[in-house]
């Protein structure tokens, strides 16, 4: 019995020793990471570190399930967000090698279903442009975020997105262009993006636990929940399924698998001596394709400068070392994948905290230790930056309150603001009246709609029934047509372009064919101009005006029809006491015109 007890203690001690980082250069890292989790009120983090062909560390810290205190392990899956992008761009290396794809030819030659807002982009955008965020399109993220729209439909709506710069003149991050790369890879191979990632990357890299969908994430035996932090409180977030935009950010992975991914990049595209990525692609991927910003050294960071972009990688001079890196953020998770090609070091960090600076703090601290650099307090640096951002947000909110016109009222009753609003690129937004309040729903997002001034309303995001602050609100303007009706809603969903306008859907009524027949006949406008009203098909009322065209009429109220193709125009039929139609009125922005029915 005593011998067995001694053996158990030995096993426990051995497990404890294995749980610690043995690399001398990383001495004290475990204590540091646990302190960072505490100071930033984070649940857990997973870390992988490699050097040349050796895995130095794959570890989990904290909790994957904070409520039940279930610890993170090296096998715990985290959503890596936009760290997915390098996987997607890498898929294009294979048709390049086979001669099926030229990165510098117009991409519409290979993917004709991809169309842009003008011919400059249609005729000239290349795969290289999409891979380096230089198409001229800004993000337009709210057109996909939380949407259940499938990939082919998301590709289609790109044609409606306004650009904010000419082609190749500015670097602008765009998730849609990485979706398009995934669809391009599918088109060239005949296989789905998910299958291509698995066959070309996961399998040869022995990334056996990784997957490409949140549906698969939650089926894993070891996965993490995502969390948000506010005022020190840690709250669980709902998983966001982003399969539609998947090639831009839907991979879930763990420290063990991601160690192999960065090891491949550290070794020039090879893993265990076998080529995974062709050298021609690898070299271009980590070479500057576009300048992202000035990238000047600052007084605070004189040894961190240069800000360029390759193929799904940010490039920088980090304290005298060439660093290749990309971050990733999706609901409840923040990640960073990085490597130093000339130093043969790779680092992956993912935290189950929304919009968190922790990956950068841990990444830089590990890099400094491995590269033998002088200590820097990256925790304090990030804390200062976050505090400045919070102060700036407060000042913005304060400035906003000074421009508000107090004591104003909306022009319409609250019921008139409810309805369905649509935009060709951004889809459908609905506003419902709940007692004396308005609630808007757009994709997976919910907003409490509160009057600001005149016909401007604050759209305040609501998560799990908890109101966000007024500083998180965006202002929407309800627009009125010539007839005094609420016609549309404009929302600032994308900086740099005019507000996105959602047209209010006109509620129609059902009119029987027998009742429609009462309107059929000929009417005379002054001039004289003849108006002929007839029924097309089963139940479509049409008005033909001499010298013009046929106008389809949509029933909206008893005896009132809107013109389908012309906003702000309607037709009202007049009846006598016997219920007979005697005239019609064209109600339009420049006046109301009566046409008398011919007997």
UniProtKB/TrEMBL annotation:
GO terms of molecular function = hydrolase activity
- Name the UniProt key words of this record, in alphabetical order: Hydrolase, Signal
Q: Which Gene3D superfamilies match?
A: 2.40.128.600, DD-peptidase/beta-lactamase superfamily
Q: Which residues form the Peptidase S12 Pab87-related C-terminal domain?
A: 404-504
InterPro entries, alphabetized: AmpC-like (IPR050491), Beta-lactam-related (IPR001466), Beta-lactam/transpept-like (IPR012338), Peptidase_S12_Pab87-rel_C (IPR021860)
Residue stretches in coiled coil:
none
- The organism's superkingdom is given as Bacteria
**For the Beta-lactamase-related domain, which residue ranges apply?**
33-357
What start and end residues bound the annotated signal peptide?
A: 1-19
This protein's name: Serine hydrolase
Source organism of this protein record: Lacibacter sediminis
